[in-house]
Give the backbone structure.
Amino acid sequence: MEFHQIRYFLMAAENLNFTRAAEQCHVSQPALTRAIQKIEEELGGEPFIRDGRAVTLSPLGRLMREHLRHIHETQEMARAAARNFLDNGSSELNVGIMCTIGPDVLSAFLNDFGNRHRDVLVILHDIGPEALPELLSTGTLDCAFVALHGDQEFTEISAQALFEEDMVVAFADGHRFAEMEQVTLYDVAEESYVDRLKCEIRQPFFDFMDLNELTLRVVCSSQREDWIQELVIRGLGVSVMPRFSITTRRIDWRKLTGPISNCRHIMIARANGLSPQPCADAFFTEAREFQWQNALLALEENAKPQ
């Protein structure tokens, strides 16, 4: 659930009028409605009851309003702390990171940038691909790290490729896959599977299974990458994930091979037509020029022996 979706929900819950809520959030009504629909999908129920033009909160909506209000207040406290920092003449840089991108490789660049620009406060935001164009075009985010798979592309924003990342099959120590050099989708179909709901190749993966009449036994699904990895470690099942999303040496892995694309592109993106603040321009430029391959090699050298 994105922070802007929470803000839209709370404004709609206060006004009980989507048009008025959209005006106060400075977005179009369709944008606010889409955000509410995303929340409904994540909650598995409807927080609002619509009867013609009348809008009321459902019991689920009243329950979630209190939880989401607490999250919003925590975010505002964080922003207030950032403002106090900025009062000393520093700059604020809002950077989005898609939740499926692991921290290890990006942290090498962020550390390098932080050492060069000690007067810049970098605020990292967990984002989904569906919200990215709007967040960049409205200036809510200065730039973002995104992951694109296959022929995916964004038309509303500029994006520069940084590096490629393999898709791998993750499994617990002692699993039979440890004896293989590579793992195919047919091999995966023979195992219990932990389903990453945010996986970029999730739909092509399930389409392949259906097309080949393979039955995949999904034992658990989650949007949380940390939960997915812990369940794999516990031996609940295997999971397809990006190589550098794996954040622990307790997980073993092998490269995925098969008829669907098995790599993704990590990119830095920003909006077209906006005049970026100097620190945002520096961040974008230095991200393009960073020695990503050296950072990847360093990670591989420290990785668990295969």
Q: What stands out?
A: Residues 59-86 form the longest helix (28 residues). Residues 164-264 form a domain with the D-Maltodextrin-Binding Protein; domain 2 fold (CATH 3.40.190.10). Residues 165 and 238 are 19 Å apart (CA to CA). DSSP finds eleven helices and twelve strands in the chain.
